[in-house]
Amino acid sequence: MDKRNYDLIENYMLSCMEDSAHDKEHIYRVLYAALEIAKEETNVDYNVLITACLLHDIGRKEQYNDPSVCHAQIGGEKAFSFLQKHGFDNDFSEKVKHCIQTHRFRNNDPPQSIEAKILFDADKLDATGAIGIARTLMYKGIVAEPLYTVTSDGTVSNGENDTAPSFFQEYKRKLEGIYSKFYTVQGKKMAKKRQQSAIDFYESLYGEVSSSYQNGEKSLSKIIENDISSGILK
Prior knowledge:
Layout: H1 3-16, H2 24-38, H3 46-55, H4 60-65, H5 71-85, H6 90-101, H7 114-125, H8 129-142, H9 167-175, H10 185-229
């Protein structure tokens, strides 16, 4: 890929990025991870891969404005139109579109090409380890969702069976099991190196908030009971 085409694609990507949890730095991390994964694969079309990495999240704004919209689907369409408009051939544009439309974690349309599999893994890698935790917390803050929920008996839920959104629910629903979802050997290796830091964070946070509620409620109940028995409270 020559510098002129790279700049053209990069500038279009930059014009589309507004979500701080899926910002331009996320794009570059995905791109660099994809290039690292690609070193261990054969017959990779680097022009397709680089273009798809740069444009894979350009549909985020549409999804944010309308949650029923899939950013991968609309992003693929936008990328295809952009590439066609700027003279890229149909085959190349279709390959990039496929990569983008199949990169989403919850997608029922799995990636088929090696470039699509690499993009999928590189994007998922940015949801692993410490960076995955940090990005999830940032996103939860953007959409005003809590760290955790409290059950009817007053204990802190670990998120496993929650239906209401929270950081703990997202960890149990996505982050905890993401390490088995990779297509490439190198992607799996890179994710595995990051896994323990995510586990440690979740377990530490859950332990801290759980003990706070358990100990705090006991202390509060004891104080209230004592005050009632002494006649201070009625």
